[in-house]
Design brief:
The structure is a single chain. The protein is α/β, with parallel strands linked by helices. It has a single domain (about 45-335), classed as Rossmann fold. It is about 45% helix and about 15% strand. It starts with 9 loop residues before the first helix and ends in a 9-residue tail after the last helix. About 50% of the residues are buried.
Length: about 350
Amino acid sequence: MFHRSALPPRCFFASFRMSGAPGHQDDAWRARQGSNIIPIVITDGRWNRPAAGSHVGKVVVVTGAAGGMGRSVADLLSGRTGHHVLVVDLDGVLAAATARDLVAAGHEASAFHCDVADRESVFAAANHAMQFGQIELIVHAAGVAPPAVQDPAAILEVNLFGTIHVLDAFDPQRTGLRSAVVVASSGAYRSFSHPLDRELAHLAPGDGVIDSLLERADVIDRPVAAYALAKRGCLVQVARRCVDWGRLGARVNSVSPGLIADTPMGQRAAGGVASSMGIDSALGRAGLAREVAEVVTFLCSDRAAYVTGVDVLVDGGFVARANYDRPADERADWHAGGVQSHDRD
Ligand SMILES: NC(=O)c1ccc[n+]([C@@H]2O[C@H](COP(=O)([O-])OP(=O)(O)OC[C@H]3O[C@@H](n4cnc5c(N)ncnc54)[C@H](O)[C@@H]3O)[C@@H](O)[C@H]2O)c1
């Protein structure tokens, strides 16, 4: 059984770690604001709010930008677009540091503390971003994975519901967004197609939904399979939304990295269950955050103007090899790590 209160206190962790005026955030401050959304100071005495009358620019939003891949994407997009980059992350301290680094490198950037698993928090981030101007792009890279997070419910809450919250909050209908890229995972390919795909594509977060999914997908005690299910949900959510978004002239795609070893998450995975993913790729090595970021920025750009509703594997050929080059028992093992649903079409 999963309840939000069972989650680690992610919202509060970053805020408690920040100290010193004017960035000091505490319960009293939050109570005065009437919100647990925490704006972050990026330079001494300067809040990450646009100055009055300055709402003329264009904005790029990157979630998870305090982490490895998000940070790499933020670096590339700030240089290539010249737009204001809003760094969105649960880790307020690292988010602020990332924004400061971008500003120090001559770009326009600021940070916003947000828990993507919290729908209100994500809508607050979207509303905040709109204050800076027209939101052009969002890259959603925030996520969690085993072994750092072992609770399958928490994995679904952040990786699946979080993605739905982000796509809802930044929907082009309400923000005017032009292009979105969701960072999924090669884990989504543990199933060729899944009996729950159609349901995942139309899933609406709500009470009991996660419990039901955990049970029917048989992932209650299997964090790796829960991760695969959540990322599968990201792919089908993207595919399903591309039609509505297309009518508005907007595009939505995803990328599915294999093992990306130079991020904090990748470093943890490289020491655990995913350790062989790098050498088992067709290229015989793990990937780099920058290599994923290059594909993401391409998908964001007008060079990919006719690409929407698709997932691009950036895995060095790991999935291709798993499906077509590995012995049958190894292939079966890999797929068995995915979702075994009780449901059938
Ligand atoms: N590294 C890999 O090998 C790998 C492989 C496939 C997919 N991915 C996916 O790529 C994305 C980026 O991974 P990474 O390797 O850069 O990981 P990372 O751990 O370096 O970065 C993830 C970032 O997300 C943030 N985050 C976590 N939970 C959040 C929440 N609830 N709200 C807001 N922010 C939150 C973290 O604070 C962190 O800054 C993730 O979605 C991950 O699942 C990673």
